[in-house]
Amino acid sequence: MSRLPRRVSSVVCCLLVFGICHAAELPSGKFVPNLAYKNDPALSAYETERCKLDLYLPAQPSGFPTLVWFYGGGMTTGFKEQKINGDIARTFARAGIAVALADYRLSPKAKFPGYVEDAAAAFAWVHENIAKYGGDPAKIFMGGHSAGAYLTSLVAMDPRYLHKLGLDQEAIAGLIPVSGQMMTHFTVRAERGIGANTIIADEAAPIYYARKDTPPFLILFGDYDWPARLEKNQYFAAEEKSLGNPQVTLQIIKDRKHSTIVADIPNPGDPVAQAIIAFIKHISAQR
Question: Taking the model in full, what pTM does it have?
Fold first, then answer.
């Protein structure tokens, strides 16, 4: 997905927000914008600004699953009002899956692990509050594209993030990283002054915490994605299977690039959307 400038003119922002947020009603449910998922009075102004999410609710009145979704952008750019994000959320809401579309702090204003902590806090808020909107707190999934997939994976693999919020991995019904990074993310490396071509896997890498007792994973990837990104995901999946984890599935989507694998989700019959919906419904039926 192409990156937008971090600073967009107020006119463009208003148009984008209007396109996504003008109507309170969705074709299949309701839209609840700008819910703060952090409420500590000690929050910085930047946390207060960024730590919010939008809820896209399905028509089903109760018992539905929820997908907490994080967009990509290298943890340096992005905002939930981008049109593609709303289109993706509405696609899943029409399929009976609520979506919590979350903003998070961005580098360089925030450094690792700030944005990871934000992702964990967004999940924890949904877990605590989704029943008020009709959702089932036992059916909460995490997913995202690119940087959002990295955040999803690290929150799940390093249990400390959720433990700080009083949750454990059993709270996560399933994980859906799309075109994610399982090594230490290049933005985290840049923050540390590590060169772009130096590949490491330390405490900032999902694979560092490889173990057999993870929540179910559906790893989705395009066959024309960035060089070596597919192999890193294949390595993660292979390592998990070597540890005896039967809950990790990697699915390669034909004719998809790093951008189109997410941009095409709203299209009718899209295989990525179909795979995500099938995964969520299958796991939800077991919980």
Answer: 0.90
Nearest-CA neighbor of 101 among 165, 32, 28? Answer: 32
Q: Counting Cβ atoms within 10 Å, is residue 60 exposed (0-12), middle (13-18) or buried (19+)?
A: middle
User: Residue 178 corresponds to which tokens in the numbers above?
Assistant: 């799309």
Query: Could you tell me the sign of the dihedral formed by the alpha carbons of 10, 12, 17, 23, in that order?
Result: positive
Residue 281 tokens read as: 């419904």
Contact 15, 4 (CB under 8 A): no
Question: How many CB atoms are located within 10 Å of the residue 238 CB?
Answer: 12
In a domain, 137, yes or no: yes
pLDDT greater than 70 at residue 118 = yes
- The reply to whether 116 falls in a domain is yes
69 and 148 in contact (C-beta within 8 Å)? yes
Q: Rounded to 5, what percent of the chain is helix, strand, coil?
A: 40, 20, 40
Q: What is the pLDDT of the chain when averaged over all its residues?
A: 91
Query: Which of these ranges, 16-30, 65-79, 92-106, has the smallest mean pLDDT?
Result: 16-30
Domain with 88, as residue range(s), is 10-286
Position 124 pLDDT exceeds 90: yes
With beta carbons less than 8 A apart as the criterion, state whether 110 and 46 touch: yes
Among the listed residues 155, 77, 143, the one whose alpha carbon sits nearest the alpha carbon of residue 109: 77
- Asked if the bond preceding 206 is cis, omega within 30° of 0, the reply is no
DSSP 217-277: EEEEEEEE-STTHHHHHHHHHHHHHHTT---EEEEEEEEEETTHHHHTTTSTT-HHHHHHH
Q: Does residue 4 sit within a domain?
A: no
3 located within any domain: no
Q: Supply the CATH number for residue 265's domain.
A: 3.40.50.1820
